[in-house]
């Protein structure tokens, strides 16, 4: 019964039954305690969880891997990853589920680098090897961190251990390669799949769209329809991104339109049989920012608030839309800033990452934390001088995007690119991931650098991919 309450939406009844069980002098076994933990987790009681932990130690359940894994999951969900890690370290026997739970714990608590280290540790151990779930989790981390080298290593492991036929694994590989800017490899995985579902097609369409292959995304969508696979919300989000990012006005209108026809796109999203999720509204909000439509942006924000899914970055998009228009809109921007302060909504500094020899390096604006900071800043100054000769002129961006003690000179992506130039052989593609939208100045910086230094630069920002080659960008000015 406790299990039934825990798995349903009646956690309080489950705890009441547990208390009744104790009052009758019946000692719960490890299985009962694991479902009690699930009940406590659903009502969000940290104290209750620590009390159960005490019972586990008192009643001699320290060797029960199943129960201790449930405790790890509890602490992880309560943002107590140190406590979860302590439980893991004290487990006498660790199975694959407990290792996967640890990876999930690090992911939930934004300790992604540690999650990758766990995969390496599992591989080097002779007890538990990564399974399909492990690979799915780690590939997700690689996609988030833009960790292409690590992702390729995981892919090699998948092939060597016969996990390559799994549809879930293949779908995640498509997403990972797409989010690392390797569309060819994503397409290769897709082509080699024996079976494809709506997730497979949506992953491919979204990957093509975010990397600037809008027409290819639309062609894939049409092929998907011919294959008789009905689209879902993620598919429509991908198509909306394809039209928005590639400037496909005529083609987009056939599906749901954008640009000066944003209102039609809005009506289309509202009228869909599938309830639009936060990602879909956020994609439309990005289009409002790109085409200076703050009025529609305000309506889109309302839908995000209704879903209780609004983020600080969404308000930043709207704020920058106001600021870019000037005039009376600056008053709107001031009012919104005041509202954000009153609500306690603060934006975190933008962060850019770059992978060098399998290690992820993080940068924020004006960063002085990196051990090679002196060499990085010297290299960036040298690059700026070279680009100025090549025609680069710095632009001042809106202050909501990223803190700028020195204007936009030392934005996080510039520092990451400079570190890439400093650390990677000439001709090597520089791949950077940023958690906010790239500003105009940094976009020009990367575009001209790709020509002056004759090397490709790939930047994944909050909205899409930018592939810079020979002084041009794949976005064609749509971002």
From TrEMBL:
<dbReference type="GO" id="GO:0003723">
    <property type="term" value="F:RNA binding"/>
</dbReference>
<dbReference type="InterPro" id="IPR046849">
    <property type="entry name" value="E2_motif"/>
</dbReference>
<dbReference type="GO" id="GO:0009451">
    <property type="term" value="P:RNA modification"/>
</dbReference>
<feature type="repeat" description="PPR">
    <location>
        <begin position="197"/>
        <end position="231"/>
    </location>
</feature>
<dbReference type="Pfam" id="PF01535">
    <property type="entry name" value="PPR"/>
</dbReference>
<dbReference type="GO" id="GO:0008270">
    <property type="term" value="F:zinc ion binding"/>
</dbReference>
<dbReference type="InterPro" id="IPR046848">
    <property type="entry name" value="E_motif"/>
</dbReference>
<dbReference type="Pfam" id="PF14432">
    <property type="entry name" value="DYW_deaminase"/>
</dbReference>
<dbReference type="Pfam" id="PF13041">
    <property type="entry name" value="PPR_2"/>
</dbReference>
<feature type="repeat" description="PPR">
    <location>
        <begin position="1"/>
        <end position="28"/>
    </location>
</feature>
<dbReference type="Pfam" id="PF20431">
    <property type="entry name" value="E_motif"/>
</dbReference>
<feature type="domain" description="DYW">
    <location>
        <begin position="410"/>
        <end position="479"/>
    </location>
</feature>
<feature type="repeat" description="PPR">
    <location>
        <begin position="95"/>
        <end position="129"/>
    </location>
</feature>
<keyword id="KW-0677">Repeat</keyword>
<dbReference type="InterPro" id="IPR046960">
    <property type="entry name" value="PPR_At4g14850-like_plant"/>
</dbReference>
<dbReference type="Pfam" id="PF20430">
    <property type="entry name" value="Eplus_motif"/>
</dbReference>
<comment type="similarity">
    <text>Belongs to the PPR family. PCMP-H subfamily.</text>
</comment>
<dbReference type="InterPro" id="IPR032867">
    <property type="entry name" value="DYW_dom"/>
</dbReference>
<dbReference type="InterPro" id="IPR011990">
    <property type="entry name" value="TPR-like_helical_dom_sf"/>
</dbReference>
<feature type="repeat" description="PPR">
    <location>
        <begin position="166"/>
        <end position="196"/>
    </location>
</feature>
<dbReference type="InterPro" id="IPR002885">
    <property type="entry name" value="PPR_rpt"/>
</dbReference>
<protein>
    <recommendedName>
        <fullName>DYW domain-containing protein</fullName>
    </recommendedName>
</protein>
């Amino acid at each position: 019964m406790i299990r039934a309450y825990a798995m349903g939406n009646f956690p309080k009844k489950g705890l009441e039954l547990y208390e009744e069980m104790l009052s009758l002098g019946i000692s719960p076994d490890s299985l009962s305690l694991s479902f009690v933990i699930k009940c406590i987790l659903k009502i969000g009681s940290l104290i209750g969880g620590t009390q159960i932990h005490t019972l586990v130690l008192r009643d001699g359940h320290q060797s029960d891997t199943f129960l201790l894994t449930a405790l790890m999951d509890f602490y992880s969900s309560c943002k107590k990853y140190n406590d979860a890690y302590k439980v893991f370290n004290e487990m006498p026997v660790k199975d694959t589920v407990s290792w996967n739970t640890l990876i999930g714990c690090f992911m939930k608590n934004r300790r992604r680098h540690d999650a990758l280290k766990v995969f390496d540790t599992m591989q080097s151990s002779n007890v538990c090897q990564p399974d399909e779930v492990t690979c799915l989790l780690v590939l997700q981390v690689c996609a988030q961190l833009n960790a292409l080298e690590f992702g390729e290593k995981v892919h090699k492991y998948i092939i060597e251990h016969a996990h390559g036929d799994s549809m879930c694994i293949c779908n995640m590989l498509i997403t990972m390669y797409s989010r690392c800017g390797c569309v060819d490899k994503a397409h290769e995985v897709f082509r080699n799949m024996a079976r494809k579902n709506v997730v497979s097609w949506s992953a491919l369409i979204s990957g093509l769209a975010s990397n600037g292959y809008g027409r290819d995304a639309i062609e894939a969508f049409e092929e998907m329809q011919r294959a008789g696979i009905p689209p879902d919300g993620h598919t429509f989000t991908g198509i909306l991104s394809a039209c928005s990012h590639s400037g496909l006005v005529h083609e987009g209108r056939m599906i749901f339109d954008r640009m000066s026809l944003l209102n039609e796109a809005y009506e289309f999203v509202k009228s869909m049989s599938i309830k639009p999720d936060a990602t879909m509204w956020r994609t439309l909000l990005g289009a409002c920012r790109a085409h200076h439509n703050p009025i529609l942006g305000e309506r889109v924000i309302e839908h995000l608030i209704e879903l209780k899914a609004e983020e600080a970055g969404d308000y930043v998009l709207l704020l920058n839309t106001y600021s870019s228009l000037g005039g009376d809109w600056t008053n709107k921007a001031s009012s919104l800033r005041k509202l954000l302060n009153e609500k306690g909504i603060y934006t975190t500094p933008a962060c850019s990452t770059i992978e060098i020899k399998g290690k992820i390096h993080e940068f924020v604006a004006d960063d002085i934390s990196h051990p090679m900071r002196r060499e990085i800043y010297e290299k960036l100054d040298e690059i700026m001088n070279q680009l100025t000769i090549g025609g680069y002129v710095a632009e001042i961006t809106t202050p909501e995007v990223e803190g700028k003690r020195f204007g936009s000179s030392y934005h996080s992506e510039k520092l990451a690119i400079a570190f890439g130039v400093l650390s990677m052989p000439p001709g090597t593609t520089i791949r950077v991931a940023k958690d906010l939208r790239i500003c105009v100045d940094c976009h020009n910086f990367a575009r001209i650098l790709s020509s002056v230094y004759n090397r490709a630069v790939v930047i994944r920002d909050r909205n899409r991919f930018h592939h810079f080659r020979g002084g041009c960008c794949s976005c064609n000015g749509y971002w």
